[in-house]
Amino acid sequence: MSAGRSMPAMRPMLVLLPLLASTAGHAEPASFAAPEAPISQPGYGEDLLPRDEKDRATLLRTVAFDATVYGMAAYLHYEQLYRQVFDRSSSNYTGFNRFAHERNLAGPDYATFKVPNTDTLYSTAWIDLSKGPVEIDIPATQLKYFTLNIFDIFGNPSNLSNRTIGVKGGRFLLVPRNWRGTAPAGVMVYPAATTQLWILMRAFAQSDAEVRTARAFQDAVRIIAPEGEGPADSHGGASPPPPAPGAIGYFGALDHVLRANGWQPGEEALVSRFRPLGIGDDRPFNPDRLTPATQAAIESGYAEALDMLTRAKSQLGEPTGTGWMKVNKGVYGFNYLRRSVINMAGLGANVREENASYTTFADRNGSALDGASSRYMLRLQTPPPVNSFWSVTLYDAKTFALHPNPLRRYLVSDRTKGLKVRKDGSIEIRIQHAASSDGNWLPAPAGPFFVVIRAYGPKPDMLNGQWLPPPISREGDAR
Predict the structure, then answer these.
(1) Pairwise CA distance, residues 256 & 437, whole Å
(2) pLDDT of 17 higher than 50
(3) In this structure, are 368 and 351 located in the same domain?
(4) What confidence tens digit (pLDDT) does each residue in 424-473 have?
(5) Do 351 and 439 lie in a common domain?
(6) φ, ψ for residue 164 (rounded to 5)?
(7) pLDDT bucket at 231, cuts 50 / 70 / 90
(8) Which of 147, 332, 384, 412 is 20 to 30 A from 427, alpha carbon to alpha carbon?
(9) How buried is residue 117: exposed, middle or buried, by Cβ count under 10 Å (0-12/13-18/19+)?
């Protein structure tokens, strides 16, 4: 075929060449999609709803259900953020970028979040990156264990801990998404997923001397926010709504959270579906703009989702075959059901590499643990394999709080004073309501309870499943 005959076939390609070449200079790439294809109409979200009244109610109920499952973890974090950052009457009010320190180990009256450990001193701070990066300075320490457990607003965790950074400390710059600055010399950049972050700091302490060391560490950790940021609780945009029960309170808070923080990459289509609820449209959430029929459908979808999430608490982990559940926490991706259920059970769930945990509500035979009717024994033939420490902690199953008792003993651990270890290295922990002189006695309520094993710095044998906790055995009737 001659060159002349081939030219007509080449012409369409030549027409495209300038468009393709323009991308090399970072010019706006050519788009062959219809201009309106990726765009929904601005405003309330009327374009997303069918006109039939019954169908509208069905879709609104479904969208409200999905938004409740999606955003429950963010709402629960916002409840805590609001108390610490905006509610000046709160006992742990600090504003943004300041720590509230717990100077004593958690007890039955601990109220910041559910199912606290009582192995470490807690400190909490909410970080705001809307005005720029915030620096965190961590001192060198010889603490047996510490972590600055950093959560985005949706509860996804990461750690600045002796596992990840060692004991020499360092300076870390928390930077907002798409930040393009340069960190000062000697400062490591920490890219944040959301504008608002929760730092849950844990510092190991058991003895009085260790408590004093942990308090000194708390005081030495510094948060350095941008100069001229204004009052510690200031934040641009609409006023933050106080958390309130019911669908209206929930969706108002979720709208505020999404406006301040955005969402994970890949969630744009999902979140855009929420506009008919008054979330993410061109104005902040206002229930007065919703018709009575819309409000009724939203309330119904919210209630159905809440009931489902409550029932799904049994999915908190994977059965081990020994009566315990291995809790799959801290790694969620797009599994919004798991994320919501775990955060409903208690905020602050860390990754297993930092803190592997196991939970049981039942004995060897599958019967509910109940101190009113039974006495129990946990025989650890081999103690949990850890690099830091382990503990066995008991909680009231009705309140999810530590059980008050005369000894103020809420756990048995490798550091428990008077702990008895058998000649073969095994440890027997007696669990019952009646008082016992046994140094390994873990006091239980005269009612239902559950037990949590925590292993900080778990070794490979635990992470790969070679070590599993043995079942709790019923030893006889309560007395």
Answers:
(1) 54
(2) no
(3) yes
(4) 999 999 999 999 988 899 999 999 999 999 999 999 999 999 999 999 99
(5) yes
(6) -95, -30
(7) very low
(8) 147
(9) buried
Q: Do 469 and 321 reside in the same domain of the chain? A: yes
Rounded to two decimals, the pTM is 0.85
pLDDT band at 34; cut points 50, 70, 90? low
In a domain, 102, yes or no: yes
- Which of the listed residues 313, 343, 378 is the one where a domain comes to its end? 313
One domain, residues 273 and 322: no
Are 199 and 288 members of one domain? no
Report the CATH number that the domain containing residue 208 is assigned in CATH: 2.60.40.1610
pLDDT tens digits along 336-390: 999 999 999 889 999 999 999 999 999 999 999 999 999 999 999 999 999 999 9
As a whole number, mean pLDDT of residues 324-346 equals 90
Number of domains comprising the chain? 3
Identify the domain containing residue 113 by its residue range.
96-224
16 lies in some domain: no
Domain membership flag for residue 32: no
Residues 209 and 304 in one domain: no
In a domain, 28, yes or no: no
